[in-house]
Amino acid sequence: MIRLIGVDLDWTFVHPSQGVPASAWQAVEEAKAAGMRFAVVTGRPFGGYGLEYALKMEPQGYHAFSNGSLITQGATLVHSVAMSPSTYRRMVLHSRAQGLPFYVSGASGRLYSENPPRELHRFAERMGVSYQRIDLLELPEPCVGGVFVLDGQLWNDLRQAITAVEGLDWLEYLVGEGEVVAVADPKGTSKASALRWMAERYGLAMEEVAMIGDSLNDLEAIKQVGLGIAMGNAEEVVREAASVVVAGLEEDGFAQAVRLCLARR
Prior knowledge:
Helix content is 34%, strand content 26%. By secondary structure, it is α/β, with parallel strands linked by helices. Strands 8-7-6-9-11-10 form a six-stranded mixed beta sheet, sandwiched between helices. Strands 2-1-12-13-14 form a five-stranded parallel beta sheet. Strands 3-4-5 form a three-stranded antiparallel beta sheet, sandwiched between helices.
């Protein structure tokens, strides 16, 4: 029986240019009327448009941002996991030593950088959060995530040294033409850990939780919940791990996924 549905945002619920399909909001309302809960579980920074979607979906419920490093109840931050100062410092010094394009997320949802990747300011605008260029060793708040954006060959050359920094978990994404986005999260934090934290507070077993997603940061959550659902546009490894694969977002796959959860109710 499914009682809580975890929802990734980008390419699962939100199309980057077309927004949220009307069918997706309709499915959310149908499920809520049947007594189901929703939780946004996203890699997006806390705040901005991601928080707006979360509050519209479940105004007083739990939601996770920054790949599970930050959890809110409604708009109030109630749980956070930050990098240790020593881990954060080592990561910044690696970025400086090689002059690497790099930015970090603070616990407030703000983004900071010394050597920003291309289009970081536009990414911040698209997320609806603020972005500042600062001395990263003077970060005014805890760091909950770091992101390198590098040429793939350069990342292959530096991966071993950078990922050797203790206290971090890494996700790597191929984007564009041979470019890698390498995301560092505090060790042990993930969308799966966030859903487990929420389930405990709702008094649910993980078997009563579903997760709908499409990307590598959804993979562990999809594996660990009672019903893991991959969008049709999901990466192959995510589709293979899921209990069910639905249509892509543009083909009303999100609504299909929610109705599968309702059928398990």
